[in-house]
Amino acid sequence: MDKLIIEGARKLQGEIRISGAKNAALPLIAATLLAPGWHVIHNVPDLRDTRTILALLETLGAEWKREGSTLLVKTDSLNNFEASYELVKTMRASILVLGPLLARMGKARVSLPGGCAIGARPIDFHLLGLKKMGASLDLEDGYVTASVKKKLSGGTIYFDVPSVTGTENILMAAVLAKGETVIKNAAREPEITNLVDMLISMGARIAGKDTDRLTINGVKSLKPAEITTIPDRIETGTYLIAVGTAGGEANLTHCNPSHLPSLIEKLRAAGLTVKDSGNSIYVSRPAKVQSIDIKTQPYPGFPTDLQAQLMALMSLATGLSVITEAIFENRFMHVAELKRMGAEIKINGNSAIVKGIAQLKGAQVMATDLRASASLVVAGLAAHGVTEISRIYHLERGYEDMAGKLKALGARVRKEKE
Ligand code: EPZ
Fold it and tell me: Could you tell me the CATH number of the domain that includes residue 42?
């Protein structure tokens, strides 16, 4: 396994290009299962997770080729409908093949994604929705086998909480179902809108885009898509926070500032200069960063995927910050590691109280999940001394060429074999 070595306490300076969004690319790639022919997906980031879902599609019989950041995927000869435990255990988002496989082939056998570092992350809403659409489901030896005699039929699906991949799975199942499906309390993340745009480009009939109520009228068949993956708002937010924490200034290009309404407000309230112009953002850190409070919420609220990174920034702010994680039950794995770097943080239920200090100190720390690792990188960039982050395969799941982008901002970063 590799580790990342960071020599911290250096201001960042420069310009980097934001990649396509991991959490948009994954459902877009899964949606190619819905129609034969060559699908064209632009701006696809080259990440561990996108390579994993392409490997999964290969086991189902799909072909693909990459031309730069454009991916071509063909699913004409699907000859398998099972997503194996080996693949699913490395990436829970593999569950995204369940809906499209069921819609295209009338059956799917997907390993239940076990828990993960940040919580139990059940998929009950996915399964309830498919059952409502006429699928019969059996759970045995860790797999869910879904099948439907003829075609899925439309229905009204209500999500207790707006599940992102739950909404995506039901969307992909509904586009080829008989009749009308209404999804109530649907998730409204920009990644859902990207998927809706792809499905409509394939001939799907979907109304309610960008709202919490999606209405889908099933069609007989769909044609291959051409779509562009939206920029990664979590990668963008991670670099905005990195500059706010380590100091300096940067320009982030090929991003979409309108996808980060809550974070940008919060960073401005903390005293950072954040200027957005269409598809780029300029950010710089002031002499003093003020503590602010946040509570994670579904979009457009503060993203849970930026909570850990913001905590690193608040560790060096002035005052007390209350950070409440309201989406996942165990998303404070980064706290113990940040405390090893000198951060003063107390956990109280699902809130962390962060007392800002003057300096963090470099240390050997361990990555536990994707965004916790990003938080440790942010802290390492600001810390005095050297920070060694082990198990950085977590990072490589969701950040394209992070070491290269940080070097372009003047950071002293290198990868080493553990
Ligand atoms: C998506 O996960 C993202 N992953 C996550 O990003 C992100 O943190 C999360 O949405 C929230 O924004 C992808 O898009 C691939 P949810 P997802 O279903 O869909 C509960 C990252 O770092 N729930 O919206 O799995 C669940 O436990 C990853 O890139 C159920 O109870 O999240 C959670 O409390 C981490 N039953 C809440 O809903 C279900 O059937 C929101 O989860 C589904 C979800």
Answer: 3.65.10.10
**Ligand 1 mean position to 126 CA, how many Å?**
11
SS3 294: strand
Q: Are residues 52 and 199 in the same domain?
A: yes
pLDDT in tens, 4-17: 999 999 999 999 99
Alpha helix positions (H), 291-392? 307-314, 333-340, 370-382
Helix (H, G, I), strand (E, B) or coil at 125: helix
Write the pLDDT tens digit of every residue in 314-331.
999 999 999 999 999 889
- For 341-361, b where at least 16 C-beta lie within 10 A, e where not — what string? bbbebeeeebbbebebeeebb
Total domains in the chain come to 2
Domain that holds residue 379: 2-19+231-417
Q: Quote the CA–CA distance of 76 and 233 in Å, as a whole number.
A: 33
**How many Å lie between the centroid of ligand 1 and the Cα of residue 133?**
22
Pairing, β 143-147 against β 156-158 = unpaired
CA nearest ligand 1 atom 35, residue = 305
User: What distance in Å separates the CA atoms of residue 110 and residue 102, rounded to the nearest whole number?
Assistant: 11
Once rounded to an integer, what is the mean pLDDT over residues 266-281?
97
Length of the chain, please? Answer: 418
Q: Is a pLDDT exceeding 90 seen at residue 413?
A: yes
Catalytic residue among 78, 116, 200, 322: 116
For residue 117, the model assigns a pLDDT of: 73
255 belongs to the catalytic site: no
- Burial degree of 149 (CB within 10 A; 0-12, 13-18, 19+): exposed
Q: How many CB atoms lie within 10 A of CB 68?
A: 9
Percentage of the chain exceeding pLDDT 70: 100
What would the mean pLDDT of 281-286 be, rounded to a whole number? Answer: 97
- DSSP reduced 3-state for 272: coil
